[in-house]
Specification:
- This is Nicotinamidase-related amidase.
- The protein is of the alpha/beta class.
- The chain has helices at residues 15-18, 33-45, 110-116, 129-142, 159-173, 179-185, and strands spanning 6-11, 49-55, 94-99, 121-127, 146-155, 175-177.
- It has 6 helices and 6 strands, in the order βααββαβαβαβα.
- The protein has a 6-stranded parallel beta sheet, sandwiched between helices.
Length: 186
């Protein structure tokens, strides 16, 4: 069993957001990769549960998300691969949770999985702060988890919305801390 109590939740570290030319790409996304890598390395060293929550839409089927944003991350497409070096390693302590909505909790078994592992605290990083990261954090809070968001390990193509989301997350849902402080929690 992974060292329980604290887990790392990484949200959408996929080519769709980080590879130029993809519909969800934005240039500033690259700034979160080093901080996320630091958290991932620490979680692996500490034998923590690592959850890779990633978009996985079904090709050719209606999807409500696509009414608001471009089609992206369909199973098997060229946007769905992980950013090189960020894919789950072969370990029972590192898993993928496919999601079809912004939140890693909505319509998935993530809450059940975390409870079974004794997780009470989630350290979070990923993209985009004001969409998938915030939705996941809000649902994690509603499920009763302590939330630690590493400020440098998240951003958005809408910086003003990312800043507003960071303020709301820190005020209402958890703690927004430096990547060093988050690293220490792992």
């Amino acid at each position: 069993m992974a060292n329980s109590g604290v887990a790392l939740l990484l949200v959408d570290v996929l080519d769709a957001f980080f590879a130029p030319g993809r519909p969800a790409y934005y240039p500033d996304s690259a700034h979160v990769l080093d901080p996320i890598k630091a958290l991932l390395t620490r979680a692996r060293e500490q034998d923590r549960l690592v959850v890779h929550a990633v978009e996985r839409h079904r090709p050719g089927l209606a999807d409500f998300e696509h009414k608001k944003i471009p089609v992206h991350c369909e199973i098997g497409d060229d946007q769905s691969p992980y950013v090189p070096g960020f894919q789950p390693v072969e370990s029972p302590h590192e898993i993928e949770v496919p999601k079809r909505r912004y939140s890693a909790f909505f319509g998935t078994d993530l809450d059940l999985l975390l409870r079974e592992q004794g997780v009470q605290t989630l350290v979070v990083g990923g993209v985009k702060t004001n969409v998938c990261v915030r939705a996941s954090i809000q649902d994690a809070f509603a499920c009763g988890y302590e939330i630690i968001l590493a400020r440098e390990a998240t951003n958005s193509n809408r910086p003003h919305l990312a800043e507003a989301s960071l303020e709301d997350i820190d005020r209402y849902f958890g703690s927004v801390v430096s990547v060093e402080q988050a690293w220490e929690r792992l």
